Amino acid sequence: MTHQTSISSAQATSSATVETPQVWIIRPHRALTWVQAKRWLYLLSLVPATSGLLFLACGVPLVLPFAGLEVLLLWAAFYYVSYTGQWREVVKLEESQVVVEKGRHRPIETYRFDRGWVRIQLRGAPYAWYPSRLSLTSHGREVSLGDFLTEAERVELARALINAIEKTR
Predict the structure, then answer these.
(1) Which end of the chain is more exposed for a tag (fewer CB within 10 A), N or C?
(2) Does 12 score more than 50 pLDDT?
(3) Euclidean distance between CA atoms 137 and 127, whole angstroms
């Protein structure tokens, strides 16, 4: 059974048996791959570069460095969005524990919780404009999940995790 949000940010693969680990792969949604982003960047970089060269030809040389700075900032912004879009959070419900792995291409952080004691908390925000916070807690340890998800996706993920843990306790 697969649960997907409307923009594929939270995917869940689950089954009713305990022997098969249930896995949720949580990732931010990015519409463009890096190759597609570079195509757009080349196209968008033509506008300030062309205008800078036109002003240089007209005798106004100070526009060209600022056009170059604009292109550089545009590339940096696209790279940052692409870089952060590779973040993954994997939640595994194994027979006796819940494992959370966070990282880009491989797990950088790994958290293990005893399945019988783990609590899933979805805390509301103190103000209406703040996002809620989804976390797993057990024995004084806490790990936050899905900070990049929308409110609806975070609620859906919390429900799926709570249902999966409660079914097999």
Answers:
(1) C
(2) no
(3) 23
Q: Give the CA dihedral 34, 36, 42, 45, nearest 10 degrees.
A: -80
**Alpha-carbon gap, residue 54 to 62, rounded angstroms:** 12
How crowded is residue 149: how many other Cβ atoms within 10 Å of its Cβ?
Answer: 24
By residue range, what is the domain housing residue 153? 2-30+88-167
- For 52-61, the pLDDT digits (tens) are 999 999 999 9
- Shared domain check, 60 and 22: no
Q: Give yes or no: residues 16 and 80 share one domain.
A: no
Q: For residues 99 and 166, give the distance between their C-alpha atoms in angstroms, rounded to a whole number.
A: 16
Compute the distance between CA of residue 114 and CA of residue 65 in angstroms, rounded to an integer: 58
Give the tokens for residue 34: 């890096």
Nearest residue to 53 (alpha-carbon basis) of 91, 161, 45: 45
pLDDT tens digits for range 89-135: 999 999 889 999 999 989 999 999 998 899 999 988 777 778 889 99
Give residue 109's region: left, alpha or beta (phi > 0; psi -120 to 50).
Answer: beta
Q: Are 38 and 80 within one domain? A: yes
> Which CATH number goes with the domain that contains 23?
2.30.29
Amino acid at 166: E
**Are 60 and 26 contained in the same domain?**
no
